[in-house]
Amino acid sequence: MRKTGVFRIRVITSIVLTLALLLLVRLYYIQVVNNQMYVDAANRQYVHTVNNLYDRGNIFFTTKDGEQVSAATIRSGYVLAVNPSIINDAESLYGSLAPFLSVDKDLFIERATLPNRTYVEVENRLSDELAEEINALNLDGVTLYKNQWRYYPGETLGARTVGFTGLTEYNYIPTGRYGLERYYESVLKYEEDKVAVNLFAELFGNLGDIAFQKEIQKTGDIVTTIEPTVARVLQQTLQNTNDLWNSEVTGGVIINPKTGSIYALDAVPTFNLNDRTGVPIEDFRNPLVEDVYEFGSIIKPLTMAAGIDSGAVSRSTTYYDSGAVELDDYTIRNYDGRGRGTVDMQEVLNQSLNTGVTFIVKAMGKNRFRDYFMSLELGELSNIDLPNETKGLVSNLNSPRDVEYATASFGQGIALTPIAAVRALSALANGGKLITPYIANKISYRSDGTQEVMVRSEAKDVFKAETSEEISRMLTEVVDTALKNGQVKNDRYSVAAKTGTAQIADSINGGYYDDRFLHSFFGYFPSYDPEFLIFLYTVEPKGARYASETLTDPFVELVNFLINYYEVPPDR
């Protein structure tokens, strides 16, 4: 009996000693190994200190030669703070610090004299060099703290596409708010994936996990297909166009129509990613993926391709154009109201005839026409890697009325995002395939140095390859003979293109404005094996009615630039 009691005492003693040892080990890990983690957490609850730093993955542009150029990174520097409780002469202190400050004198003095305060930030992005100069002044009541912040070397370059970070009320660490910064937040953010717990929980929770390793989420850098020189040229072209015609918004995309990789995507007005003071919030949005428009006649080549692909018409098919067509008590007219007599399908594109594409819809039948447009996924997401993408408005394609299909055939009554339009139009250029447009093509992971190449959805066939070749031939003829009467024909390069002019809908009174237009333009080259598709649009330009007036020259300038920059060999 006594031996049993002694044994129990020994067992209990052993258990107690083991638990004590485990607790001592846990205390060691909490107080020694992980001490800095808890210090950091505590410091964040009070003031900005040297420990309140963060890390985040980079975003890179990629040059035509494969070199990575920083689009978003982390910059280090210092915070300048003052202690009002020990500052006796704020005006004199301002005189000493003025060369280093962006705040004016009144604001500085207001901050430096706040009552019952021991810490007030005055500047939060000082360079190392400026910090050294300030430190050498040895000023009482002035302190410098190490700081890091998100920095965008390109400033305005692709601002609406790159996006930016910002603080939220739920998180002291800047997170992606717009653009790629937001879309790839889970990849770019770099923080410990650990829930804060109290000391008791740390001591007695998960005692078996002696190693107490902190799990780090697999994060990294984003490498994009944006070519910085192309992006800069596109942005300047858009800005020049917007300024010249006093437009509300002007946007553009340059894409490889065969792969979906985007060289440049932008809209103006734009802004400086490093200084967003006073910028209206609507300028942060990306209208190329978030807004829908009725694009007008650039949709006609899609209607023509559907008609040819279905066998309803061919390039040589003719019809009699009286200048107007009556449908469901509505009258469909050409842009100028004139009839052309007997014309073929090439002239429908050359002269952008509304009656011509209406004829195609009638020849196909509205159900087959709808099937083709639905297969182009005009009312679906393109799945581009940007946030807040909006679906197109194509409910008119389910109407029982013939007139809705007729207006859709020339780009009115249906509204698309620019990127959805780009995606559909690329099918004309690439052999009839519906591709997925994308901006990021690779992730470089930090934890193990590996790289992951993005895998996109496989392109699906919409048109036959022969249809794509035929429509490319017809759109090349448009450029060679019809666009500005053939003045922009390139003798060494085949270029396929089409303009679009659409009245803007009156959302208040219904119908359309008589004096407000959206101009659009798309084209690709070389026509029969294109590496580049350019899409441009401008909203409410002043002083010009037709897109051929506003967007032809910018398009031609971009074509010539790309030919020279990429040293594209001539195909003629």
CATH fold title of the domain at 228-565: Beta-lactamase
Q: What structural class results from the helix and strand content? A: alpha+beta
If helices are DSSP runs of H or I spanning 4 or more residues, what is the number of helices?
20
Shape: elongated
CATH architecture of the domain at 228-565: 3-Layer(aba) Sandwich
What portion of residues is helical?
25-40%
- Ends apart, CA distance between termini: 108 Å
CATH superfamily of the domain at 228-565: DD-peptidase/beta-lactamase superfamily
What assembly state would you assign to the polypeptide chains in this entry?
A: single chain
Give unreliable regions as ranges: 39-51, 193-216
Largest sheet: 7 strands, mixed
Provide keyphrases for this structure.
572 residues, alpha+beta, seven-stranded mixed beta sheet, five-stranded antiparallel beta sheet
